Amino acid sequence: xxxxxxxxxxxxxxxxxxxxxxxxxxxxxxxxxxxxxxxxxxxxxxxxxxxxxxxxxxxxxxxxxxxxxxxxxxxxxxxxxxxxxxxxxxxxxxxxxxxxxxxxxxxxxxxxxxxxxxxxxxxxxxxxxxxxxxxxxxxxxxxxxxxxxxxxxxxxxxxxxxxxxxxxxxxxxxxxxxxxxxxxxxxxxxxxxxxxxxxxxxxxxxxxxxxxxxxxxxxxxxxxxxxxxxxxxxxxxxxxxxxxxxxxxxxxxxxxxxxxxxxxxxxxxxxxxxxxxxxxxxxxxxxxxxxxxxxxxxxxxxxxxxxxxxxxxxxxxxxxxxxxxxxxxxxxxxxxxxxxxxxxxxxxxxxxxxxxxxxxxxxxxxxxxxxxxxxxxxxxxxxxxxxxxxxxxxxxxxxxxxxxxxxxxxxxxxxxxxxxxxxxxxxxxxxxxxxxxxxxxxxxxxxxxxxxxxxxxxxxxxxxxxxxxxxxxxxxxxxxxxxxxx
Length: 486
Ligand SMILES: O=C(O)CCC(=O)C(=O)O
Ligand SMILES: [Fe+2]
Fold this sequence. Notes:
Blueprint: H1 37-42, H2 46-63, H3 84-92, H4 96-103, H5 119-122, E1 134-141, E2 145-151, E3 162-166, H6 171-182, E4 195-197, E5 203-206, H7 215-218, E6 222-226, E7 241-245, E8 260-267, E9 272-275, H8 281-291, E10 296-297, E11 318-321, H9 328-341, E12 352-356, E13 362-365, H10 378-384, E14 392-399, E15 405-406, E16 409-411, E17 430-432, E18 439-443, E19 457-459, E20 462-464, E21 467-475
Antiparallel strand pairs: 1-2, 1-6, 2-3, 4-5, 4-6, 7-8, 8-9, 9-18, 10-11, 11-12, 12-21, 13-19, 14-18, 14-21, 15-20, 16-17, 16-19
2-oxoglutaric acid binds near residues 8, 354, 409, 457 and 459.
């Protein structure tokens, strides 16, 4: 039986002229150079260190006020957060006797409490089994050195490797340490630069940043490094629940803003989270109403081996893309989604609304594009996936209705199971029951940036009732020419 792998895709749109070649995310605002320097000249060491720490945290949080996942890619390089480093240099010129006695009291420059590398915080990011390409790094900055503890592939270990760098290292030294101890591979034309994030998904550094002042970073406490360059929530273990704050774009006008979301890990292989109540009643109704006039039996982008076959061989539901991004309810959810996955809105496709009537289904497939399977489709290869560099990374799948019977989303390769022989089979695997307002988040790419074949999934036939749902696809790179963030 022919393998029925296929992807569903927005039809190609004329590419707008956009320069997104070399983009850096500017996550730290430049320091204004004021604050604690005069008091650190006058008084002893303990007092100025505290002032410096407070000033550092203040300017760090100012830098974080507009999280990167709400911003478009900017072309500035990483710059200084605080004047803490300069103050530290001044302090180092003080008498060594004075320094010694005070250092014992304020030896460690405290990271923001929520990012401190405590065993509790570590238990929220480490896994029993290695996660290829996601690394946890603990930074312990003292007056004299920076201690770096590595948890390669975000795996628990009682004896993690660590190193000690003298003073506050330069970006090059820190970068070399990460590359060596985490075995990071350099970017090339098919791979994004690796990147360093706060545990809350804030982009801090990228491999291709040129001028980085390390003070803000070194005092972060814990950072996550992703070989694939994009943030992915650590799954930790099945049943793990993480409540995250949701941030909103300042232009957002909706009154009913959700402040938090709770992600529950429902599978590690593939990585799947469930978020109850992510969408409100009004929103579920709105998307059904908005989509109804343009619903049509679904198209799929056929792989080479499937060319000529009708889409209904695989997928019998109706669907439509909603393209009016200026509608407040649509853009509101785009921003909410950017915050949910901590990936900027410009990585999102327009939402695709789905409706399954009785008996309608969608056989198991991947949402990513495997470039090997599109070698005879130059348009998809070039325009969408840029020969494999760009791809769908995340599906945020919305359930807009309850379904009386059937209509589950199935992951047949749950737990690393082998590929099913029959892609229409709905017996084995993880089955997610639709529930109005709930979304699931699943990752088609792994933290190292490679395709995750275990993300295979399908829609079981609806047995009773109607299933309304939607796909919100988030790419691993900006898609300004066909995404919803245009
Ligand atoms: O309807 C579902 O549960 C899944 C649909 C799906 O995977 C898709 O539209 O790509
Ligand atoms: Fe899908």
